[in-house]
Design goal:
five-stranded parallel sheet, 198 residues, alpha/beta
């Protein structure tokens, strides 16, 4: 079994792509969901974050996400400190999860795979791309967010042109190119790789 990274900028549609892979019988580990769970439930991580940002971060036992966001979105150093605490815990959880899977390959869906260097852990990486204007429109529609808020969040992710050369496969999700044929091509490719290695 090989593990494959699946990533894309905010609003690119990587979660939609992940769901299609699941329909094809491929297990998907959602790293961002797992990191949220770890932030709420892992006592060691709660202690480390409280030491960094103060006890008010966990006032009601659960993480105050708005407060954390305000601390890290315009502070690159703080964001890197949080990532250095959370990402190893997510990676450990992924390793445990992989041991329970029986498919030819598995996917890990994560927003900032290239930015953190996490892509190096995977046999292959898939990047989902979409034009910036379309991504902004999707997020506005989904999150009811302002353009400036979305652009602030986008600043924490690399530009797509920076990520494309690092990806093994690129899926264009611009609503003119059909998604399913692109995904099926990648699926067949990955199955042939796993067949050769088994």
């Amino acid at each position: 079994m090989i593990s494959v990274g699946l990533t894309g900028g905010i609003g690119s549609g990587k979660s939609t792509v992940a769901k299609v892979f699941e329909k094809l019988g491929i297990p998907v580990f959602y790293a961002d969901k797992e990191s949220k769970r770890i932030l709420d439930e892992n006592n060691e991580i709660k202690e480390k974050l409280s030491a960094l940002f103060g006890p008010e971060l966990y006032k009601s036992k659960k993480l105050d996400r708005g407060l954390l966001a305000s601390k890290i979105f315009s502070n690159k150093e703080a964001l890197e400190q949080v990532n250095a605490i959370v990402h190893p815990a997510v990676a450990n959880r992924f390793s445990e999860w992989c041991k329970q899977q029986k498919s030819p390959y598995v996917l890990q869906e994560a927003a900032i795979l290239f930015e953190t260097g996490g892509y190096k852990r995977f046999a292959k990486n898939i990047l989902v791309t979409a034009p910036k204007a379309l991504r902004i429109a999707r997020i506005k529609n989904r999150d009811n967010a302002e353009t400036w808020e979305i652009e602030q969040r986008m600043k924490n992710q690399w530009d797509e042109n920076h990520k494309i050369p690092l990806a093994d496969f690129v899926i264009l999700n611009d609503e003119s190119e059909m998604l399913l044929p692109q995904i099926l091509r990648i699926h067949e490719n990955l199955l042939s790789i796993t067949n050769k290695s088994s």
